[in-house]
Amino acid sequence: MIGHIVRMFDHLKWADERVLLAMRRSGERHEGSLGLYGHILGAEHVWLARLEGRTPTVAVWPTMALEEYETVATANHGAYRDYIETLDESALARMIEYRNSAGRECHSRIDDILTHVALHGAYHRGQIMLLRREAGEKLVSTDYIEFVRGAPAATRDSSD
């Protein structure tokens, strides 16, 4: 299971970086996609703070410039790598207590939180790509299979 978690977070880093590059190419003119990207990074940060039992320093819906998001992304990716390296199989089943953003006391397993973080980002990266397609921009793929194969996934415009 640890190996799978590591691979999901390698994908998360790769996908976050691809979105960042696409946003850099087009600039910050798409407020909606910039806000969603910030939310991905803010949520990653908040969940890691919960896992580590500390107070987050980045909001779950932060408002920053693209360069600041890049700094947060780099910090998140390094911190998750370091955190996951401390875990073993038995630690993944451990429950942690935290307060959610509504202030409610919650309990969750570490492996469930890590899976949520990886899937949450995938969900919102899809929303970002939809917004960018509607704006007439060329899309980047963040599909997991493209990450593991190292080759683009098929699209409706491609013929295999």
Write the layout of secondary structure elements.
Blueprint: H1 2-26, H2 31-52, H3 66-85, H4 89-92, E1 95-99, E2 105-109, H5 110-134, H6 144-149
Antiparallel strand pairs: 1-2
Helix pairs in contact: 1-3, 1-5, 2-3, 2-5
CATH classification, class level? Mainly Alpha
> CATH homologous superfamily?
dinb family like domain
- Any idea what the radius of gyration is? 16 Å
* Tally of contiguous helical segments: 6
Average of the residue pLDDT scores: 88
At the fold tier of CATH, the topology name is: Four Helix Bundle (Hemerythrin (Met), subunit A)
Largest sheet: 2 strands, antiparallel
Structural class: mainly alpha
Q: DSSP strand (E) fraction?
A: 5-15%
In the CATH hierarchy, the architecture is Up-down Bundle
What is the number of domains? Answer: 1
Strand order of the largest sheet: 1-2
Q: Can I get a quick summary?
A:
The protein has helices at 2-26, 31-52, 66-85, 89-92, 110-134, 144-149, and strands at residues 95-99, 105-109. The protein has 160 residues and is mainly α.
